[in-house]
From TrEMBL:
Residues 33-69 are annotated as: Disordered. Keywords: Membrane, Transmembrane, Transmembrane helix. InterPro entries: DUF3014. It comes from Saccharobesus litoralis. Pfam families: DUF3014 (PF11219). The chain crosses the membrane at residues 9-29. This is DUF3014 domain-containing protein.
Length: 292
């Protein structure tokens, strides 16, 4: 049986007192029946032994136990584990300029997975960085250095249609000629700007080295690239038929305003308005990142 708690101890003591008192009073209380007396032969009646009075019972409640203060246990100090420091990411390595063409091809192809094969097919496979730098340097002045183009020229020539209006003989550039540049325009259009700029920053040492090789010590290649982009953005978009003349073996624009444009601008016009808009829109995004 469970030991009574301090809250039940006092009622239990009082109940015990009541029981004991009742028994004592019953023993001392006179009986209602009168004993019979023998007249003929009285007997000596022994005197009853006086009852022993019970010791007084202490009815005062037991004192509440003194509260025992329990000391708080000493705090257990747990050593915190040392924070795990993530290793510094390794700087991506770039090859030497002489061995950079294949690396640059793969980097450009990885920018847009859907154009991976296309990038390999369109980009030149030797001295890609050097040719890009020389091409941009010429384009910054509006010149077109075909032999240094970082992309391969279309495998097919332009398609023209002979026209005559009265006594005027001329040619028009057929829309099928524009399709020669569709793949290149789509490749440029699909380049992600942020990833392309990250690649530009990564390849900056290679570009700077190639730029110094052609005599531009201490000059920032970014300024030259911005000038080339501005040249391309200044090319007007020609909608509708583009008239050509052939005063010699080479075709020319019949419109003097178009023929007087810089060679890099005339190349954009020959790409056709749709392709030209794609390329110029992407170049504008690159420019915004470069000047930021």
């Amino acid at each position: 049986m469970a030991e009574p708690t301090s809250s039940s101890l006092v009622p239990a003591i009082l109940a015990g007192i009541v029981v004991v008192s009742s028994i004592s009073l019953y023993a001392l209380w006179p009986s209602d029946e009168t004993p019979e007396v023998n007249q003929t032969k009285p007997e000596q009646v022994a005197m009853p032994t006086p009852a022993v009075e019970p010791e007084p019972i202490n009815t005062a409640p037991e004192p509440e136990p003194e509260p025992v203060e329990i000391a708080d246990p000493e705090p257990v100090i747990v050593d915190e584990p040392e924070p795990v420091v993530a290793p510094e990411p390794e700087e991506p390595s770039i090859p030497e300029l002489e061995q950079s063409s294949g690396w640059m091809q793969n980097q450009i192809a990885s920018l847009t997975s859907q154009n991976e094969v296309l990038a390999h097919d369109d980009l030149v496979n030797n001295d890609l960085v050097r040719k890009f730098v020389v091409f941009v340097d010429n384009a910054s002045r509006g010149d077109l250095a075909h032999q240094y183009s970082p992309v391969k020229a279309p495998s097919t020539g332009i398609v023209v249609k002979a026209m005559q209006t009265g006594n005027e003989h001329y040619f028009t550039l057929e829309e099928s000629s524009y399709s020669r540049y569709n793949d290149l325009a789509n490749l440029i259009d699909n380049l992600p700007v942020s990833a392309s700029m990250a690649l530009f920053d990564l390849a900056k040492p290679l570009l700077s080295e190639a730029y110094e090789e052609i005599g531009y010590n201490g000059k920032d290649f970014d300024d030259t690239l911005l000038a080339a982009i501005d040249q391309a953005l200044d090319a007007p978009v020609v909608e509708g038929d583009i008239r050509l003349i052939a005063p010699s073996a080479m075709y020319q624009f019949s419109d003097p305003a178009l023929e007087s444009l810089a060679p890099i601008q005339k190349l954009l016009i020959r790409m056709g308005p749709k392709n030209q808009k794609k390329v110029q829109a992407k170049l504008a995004q690159f420019k915004a990142e470069l000047v930021r």
